[in-house]
Specification:
By secondary structure, the chain is an alpha/beta fold. The chain has 6 helices and 11 strands. It is globular.
Length: 213
């Protein structure tokens, strides 16, 4: 269970959110610049909030007296641009954090990327990069998985296949997953629950209208 209650002053508004996520897929939607990615960056430890608390399974990641480094939070993160190391092969990208080799090998087999292990990121398609990024994010058996627009670089005709591959992986995981997306169809297919962010605050949306809550 992830519990987050934080405030952070951004350029044009104050990000002020309070929500929790169980062992489910939570979709976060909102306009560009509404604070969606900032939420993921704060949870992961890349961005420090001004105040509040982040609790993951009873472990305090951030509070007024605690601010764990990203590497100490055990949070997997799939970035929008995949953030693979260009000077490393796929295999090196997947194993550089010394994860459980048997576990990662099962993920490699499941997502059918064994033939790519000796390739470098600049030779991969968007879909291949996405698969490698997901495996890398899961390689250390994280307690939480964050995904920022993970399918934005995938051709529309291939997206449904990737959605169901992710849902299949989710069945084997017992952790919260948060997905940031602009795509309503994507959110509805993947998410157990959807929340909306508008200018840093939770809101509800009905028939293209936004209501602050």
């Amino acid at each position: 269970m992830l519990k987050i209650n934080i405030e952070k002053k951004l350029n044009h508004f104050v990000l002020d959110v309070d929500f929790s996520v169980g062992n489910e897929i939570l979709g976060i939607m909102g306009e560009s610049g509404s604070g969606k990615t900032s939420i993921l960056n704060i949870i992961s430890g890349i961005l420090e909030p001004d105040s509040g608390e982040i609790d993951l399974n009873g472990k305090i990641l951030f509070s007024n007296s605690v601010n764990l480094k990203p590497q100490d939070r055990n949070v997997g993160y799939v970035f929008q641009d995949f953030a693979l190391f260009p000077n490393m092969s796929v295999k090196e990208n997947l194993f550089f954090m010394n994860p459980d080799e048997n576990y990662v090998s099962k993920l490699i087999d499941k997502l059918k990327v064994e033939h790519l292990l000796n390739n470098y990121p600049n030779t991969l398609s968007g879909g291949e990069k996405q698969k490698i990024s997901i495996i890398r994010a899961l390689s250390t058996k994280p307690d939480l998985l964050l995904m920022d627009e993970p399918f934005s670089a995938i051709d529309e005709k291939f997206k449904d296949k990737f959605y169901f591959e992710l849902l299949d992986i989710k069945k084997q995981l017992d952790i919260p997953i948060i997905i940031v997306t602009h795509n309503r169809k994507e959110a509805e297919i993947l998410s157990d629950r959807i929340i909306f962010i508008d200018k840093g605050k939770l809101c509800k949306r009905e028939e293209n209208k936004i209501y602050n809550i």
